[in-house]
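Structure ticket #2291
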Amino acid sequence: MPRAASSPAVGGRPGLIVAALLLGGVGMVALVFGAADGTTSVAALSGPAQVSASRLDNAYYSCLDIQIRSLVAPGQPVTFDPRDNVADLLRAAGSWLHAAPTDDASVPQLVLAARAGPGTCHGFVVETRTRGAAGRIEVRVGTGASVPGQGPLPRPEL
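Resolution: structure written out below.
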């Protein structure tokens, strides 16, 4: 006589079900704590001090970009003084600047110079230095934007 097909027993593995429920519960608790931590981080990073520092940071780099554009045309090669703060110049306008070899004296050299007073980007101006016909160094100062203040920019709290 043929044997009847056996149907799977409902709740045949209670240990597996308990383990799955336990693991699911632990996962849910971890997700809740992760979401709460993320919310706390966002709130801390969007506080008044952070927003103010970010606005100053944006204004500073925008100011440098405008001063660089007043001195150098897009596509014009430039060099950088390796002893200078090249990182700030590149952060401000690195997407459109074209670097030439450092020893190329025929192209202007971009320099970030510390200055006090109006017309500065938080105490700095962008200069180009080129060698003139008589071998004398000619300095041009960037214009078109300024950000009041002096000294280093506030760094964001992480």
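Closing remark: The chain has a mean pLDDT of 83.
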